[in-house]
Every structure is written in structure tokens, then in C-alpha cells.
Design a protein that fits this description.
Layout: H1 3-13, E1 18-19, E2 22-23, H2 30-47, E3 55-61, E4 77-79, E5 84-86, E6 97-102, E7 110-118, E8 121-128, E9 137-142, E10 152-158, E11 162-170, E12 185-189, E13 197-203, E14 209-211, E15 215-218, E16 222-226, E17 231-237, H3 255-273, H4 276-294
Antiparallel strand pairs: 1-2, 3-17, 4-11, 5-10, 6-9, 6-11, 7-8, 7-10, 12-16, 13-14, 13-17, 15-16
Helix pairs in contact: 1-2, 1-3, 2-3, 3-4
């Protein structure tokens, strides 16, 4: 349903839609149409909390093999001036990428080099020199090694103190824009129209299907889950409607509830167009709203394990 559909019903109810079967021109109804666009936006935002329209996001995740180890490299480590090597000065084989974080003290100070041992000589693959950073910052990328059987090491050096954490040497090969960030809590940025969750479901590889409880939501946009989660996460939410500015815009609440926008607009424009309609429209608006929200959908949180007994 678009805004024009709403306006057509409004015009019909206030007897401004047609004359002897001939559609009245938009020019003659321009004032009502412009007001109706604004009133439709107001009504949609007022009714949004009762809408049954939802969206769903699916996230997939599997813990990736970190050649530096699973847990110890989450630790925050001080650099005090002496060169540090990860996993050791001798390096480790089967490395194809990296990820790490440094704090603001590393700016114009730290040098993080990834080296491969080729024919007995440590050869530079990638060097990262953080500049102009003001907060804990992630750096990650791919490493193009001569031979995956050659040892690779992460070399951390600098001139002054800084902190680093979440270090990883990735075993798998990734596209440049797909290299994962190694962190205890995986962060996913949710869409701009996200407001709050209706429910969060997790589906594990072993055919388990449950309501998810081990997650965090910050800033109404940032969704965090534990790095060791493996499976699919489905987030159901009620999208915030965007502002209506045109007769061609789509009404973003469910269609049954959207019907009440017709009465809402009439109750507002009736003061200047047809005062006799105001009380009737206001009554119908309240009745229609009550009917549209009376029947609630089934509670999805009652679904615990649809694979039980399989």
C-alpha cells in the first residue's frame, strides 16, 4: 500500500474524490494531498509500536583457527621498548593472514611487521605503522607467503610504550575484505532501521534450535556475540519506518493497521474541510486500531527445539 492509496480513501470519504464519476484533479485537491502526506507520516510513527511487520537478519559464524592459540592472545600486552615476537622468534607455519589491535599510544610509534623465513632469511611480508589513531584500532589483512610450510612471525617494535591485544595469525586464506577480526566478542552492526529485538534465535550445527541468551546489544545498533559461537543467528526486529514525503512512498506498517491512517487523517483535516466528520473519524480510528492490535501473533520464544526427537 502506498500513500496515494490512503489519500484516495480520504478523498472519497470527504466527498472530494470524484464528481459524477469524474476523478477530481490533484490540483483542486492539492492542499488536502499535501496535508495528508504530513499527517500520514505522523500517524505511521504513532502506530508503529502496534505494527506486526518485522524484518529478519541472519548471521553465520564459526570460530576460525588462530595459529597463535585460541585464548591467550586476547590479553592486553604492554610494549616497553624490547622487540616482541608472536608466537615466538622462530615463527610458525601455515599462516595466510593477520589481525591485531593497538591503542592510541601506538600512533606514530609502533611498527608491526609480518615476516616469512625464506631460505634461512627473515623476509618482510607486510609492515603496519599506525598513524593518527585516537582509540583502540583494528588492523587486519592477508599475507602472501612464498610457501605455507615456511615459518611466519609477527614482530612488534617501537620507540615508546603502547598496548596491543587480540593478536591472530590466520591459517585460512581470505579475500582482502573478508579477513576476520580476532576478538572475544564478535561485533555486528545492525541496520539503521533497527530499534529493538523481537527475538533472537540460534541454530547450532548439531540441529539444535533455541532462543539465544548469550549476546549483548549496545547503542541500539551494535550486536555482540561470543567468538566461540558456531552456527546461525537469526534476529527478528520491528523496523523503524522512514519519513513519508511523497504520495508514492510505501506505508511501512502492516496493512490492517495502516487502514486506521485514513481515519486519522480525516479526523485532522476535518476541522477545516468537514467538521461533521471529525467525531466519526476519530471513533473509527480508535475502533480500527483496537481491532488491529487485539489478536497477537504466537509467541515465538516458546519454540525451544524444533528438532527434538529427530
Amino acid at each position: 500500500m502506498i500513500v496515494q492509496d490512503i489519500i484516495n480513501k480520504v478523498l472519497a470519504l470527504i466527498d472530494a474524490y470524484s464528481s459524477r464519476g469524474v476523478i477530481i484533479s490533484a490540483e483542486k485537491n492539492a492542499d488536502i494531498i499535501k496535508k495528508s502526506i504530513l499527517f500520514a507520516d505522523m500517524a505511521q510513527k504513532e502506530l508503529w509500536a502496534y505494527s506486526k511487520n518485522t524484518k529478519q537478519i541472519e548471521l553465520t559464524h564459526r570460530q576460525q583457527p588462530n595459529r597463535l592459540g585460541t585464548l591467550s592472545n586476547f590479553n592486553l600486552v604492554d610494549f616497553k621498548g624490547d622487540t616482541q615476537y608472536y608466537p615466538s622468534e622462530g615463527g610458525i607455519a601455515n599462516v595466510n593472514g593477520y589481525s591485531f589491535k593497538v591503542n592510541e599510544e601506538a600512533s606514530d610509534n609502533a611498527v608491526i611487521t609480518f615476516e616469512e623465513l625464506v631460505s634461512g632469511v627473515w623476509t618482510e611480508l607486510v609492515t603496519v605503522t599506525p598513524t593518527s589513531i585516537t582509540e583502540l584500532t583494528v588492523y587486519k589483512g592477508v599475507l602472501t607467503v612464498t610457501d605455507t610450510s615456511n615459518p611466519v612471525r609477527m614482530k612488534i617494535s617501537g620507540t615508546e610504550h603502547f598496548l596491543h591485544k587480540d593478536r591472530a595469525l590466520w591459517e585460512y586464506k581470505y579475500k582482502v575484505d573478508s579477513v576476520p577480526t580476532y576478538e572475544a566478542w564478535v561485533k555486528e552492526e545492525l541496520p539503521d532501521d533497527f530499534n529493538e529485538t523481537e527475538n533472537v534465535i540460534e541454530e547450532f550445527p548439531e540441529r539444535q534450535y533455541n532462543e539465544m541468551v548469550n549476546y549483548k546489544l549496545e547503542n541500539f545498533r551494535d550486536f555482540y556475540f561470543n567468538f566461540d559461537f558456531e552456527g546461525v543467528i537469526r534476529i527478528t526486529y520491528k523496523p523503524i519506518p522512514s519519513t513519508i514525503t511523497s504520495v508514492d512512498d510505501t506505508i511501512q506498517i502492516d496493512e490492517v493497521l495502516a487502514q486506521t491512517i485514513v481515519y486519522d487523517i480525516i479526523s485532522k483535516i476535518g476541522f477545516t474541510e468537514d467538521t461533521a466528520l471529525v467525531n466519526w473519524a476519530e471513533g473509527r480510528r480508535l475502533e480500527a486500531k483496537s481491532e488491529s492490535i487485539k489478536s497477537e501473533p504466537a509467541n515465538e520464544t516458546s519454540i525451544i527445539n524444533v528438532y527434538g526427537g529427530v
